[in-house]
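#structure-requests
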Amino acid sequence: MRMLAITLIAASLWPAAVQGQAEKPARILVEERFGPAIRKAIATRPTDDDLLLAEELLTIAKDPTTSGDMLAELADRVFQLASRDPAGTDLALEAMNMVATTLPDRAADARDKSIAFLRRAVSVSDGDAKVTAATKLMSYLEKLAEERAAASDFGGAAKMYQQAMLASGDAKLPDLTELKAKYDAAAAREKLEQRIELAIEALAKNPVNATASSELVQIYMVELDNPAAASRYTRYCNDEKAKRLVPLAAGKMQELTAEQCMELGEWYEKLLTEASATAKPALSMRARGFYEQFLMLPGADSVQQLRASLGIARARDVWMKLNPEEAQKIVIPDERGWVDLFKDLEVPRYRVTGRWKKSDTALTVDASSDAARLMLPAAATDAYELSLRFTRTRGDGAICVILPLGQQQCRLVLSGW
């Protein structure tokens, strides 16, 4: 072990020592410097020295001055050494992840190597060790799926989610509801992308193709909640109402008239009947948003206000049925009987419109270009009091609080007129 320590200390000086040998291939440099130590570590039955050497090589690979080729060679040696001991699993995966994230041309190979390594760990293990290995494999596959979805590779994401579900059997996970939902969403999105591709190909052959135009409007407007993209294809679509309303939905809500807001709210409610389950939450929020905007504008009579309020209630009911866990969320009051709705608020989940930001001490919003809305994760089922403190830093627009009243609602409007 003492000889190993001397080897490692010397290794830490290696990047500077080889600067004058940069003309040599990375494979030869690594072999010259570390080949004997690697072979010696592998030849011994205990694996402590393998892991120590792997850690040292990984440290060198992380050095900013290490070239890409050298990083890849060192990462391969780290993987070789660390994979000899179950305790080195995270080290081996870290080495491959470093290659995958820094060397795009080697990324696929590094990820495949990680998957094969984890699958082998599952196959040769039993008991708790098998469960641990399977859990790591499932988590890794799920992470890859999310990365592919973020890169718009939904077909690849669906495959990774499917493989993760297969690995879940060895991980002994009783509930795959969330993972299955992710797979379904990725698979559905891949089918949508295929439909989009076919429709765009049809338009390339015939730019006035009404069927292809209508298909794209429906996909972008209903399934992807993207009115701006849908508006590019309305000119030749078959739906006259879509031609008129899609551009309005893609514009700024605060520039709409009360009549337009009401029509858009009712139209979005109709679109809900055509939408898939994954698209309905966004559409219900859109419908609700236009109804709420209608109530903010002056001039509506009591019948119109009731009409909008009922629309809001319907849209809210749709959202609650699609999000039962959130709808049923129980909030625990403090000793004074109050609930802080901002404390654990997840802004990305509950933001409707606007640029909201949450810090440890405050919730801020920039509503300078359009109206901003935020839904709070609580349902009032009885009498309640509301306490809200805010500071206006600029602008003079209305500050509105939408208050639920049984199956209806009203607005507290500050600086409205």
